Inverse folding.
């Protein structure tokens, strides 16, 4: 088994975890890479934006999501935005945490117009993922599970 060392460094307001694995240095980023889970999240948000069903529109309004076209819904890969959103999300998870989950510090961040929808797969409530709608100032506008 390779030797591994973890070193945490504070860089501005973000924490950067560096993992040394057999002489290789790997950065632990706050942004999760695009995958099937993030694609499903973005697709669900796009459907939420385009539906004219009154119940769906009411849900969108209750979540403080702006009405935008599908092209304004996409996954973020900007490390500083992900780090900010991961910090807000992690601090907002109630204690005791849902299902004793601990935020990983690595999140999916979807941009929806002027706000962000944030999800850390390590945090669940039962079988559901805990998501938050957060504005660019770091204020939580809504929390929900889906």
């Amino acid at each position: 088994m390779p030797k591994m060392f973890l070193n945490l460094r504070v860089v501005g307001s973000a924490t950067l975890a560096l993992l040394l694995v057999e002489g290789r240095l790997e950065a632990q980023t706050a942004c999760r890479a695009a995958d099937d889970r993030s694609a499903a999240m973005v697709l669900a948000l796009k459907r939420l934006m385009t539906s004219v069903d009154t119940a769906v529109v009411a849900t969108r309004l209750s979540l403080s999501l702006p009405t935008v076209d599908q092209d304004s819904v996409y996954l973020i890969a900007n490390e500083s935005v992900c780090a900010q959103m991961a910090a807000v999300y992690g601090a907002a998870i109630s204690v005791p945490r849902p299902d004793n989950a601990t935020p990983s510090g690595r999140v999916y961040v979807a941009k929806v117009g002027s706000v962000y929808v944030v999800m850390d797969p390590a945090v669940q409530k039962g079988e559901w993922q805990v998501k938050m709608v957060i504005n660019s100032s770091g204020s939580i506008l809504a929390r929900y599970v889906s």
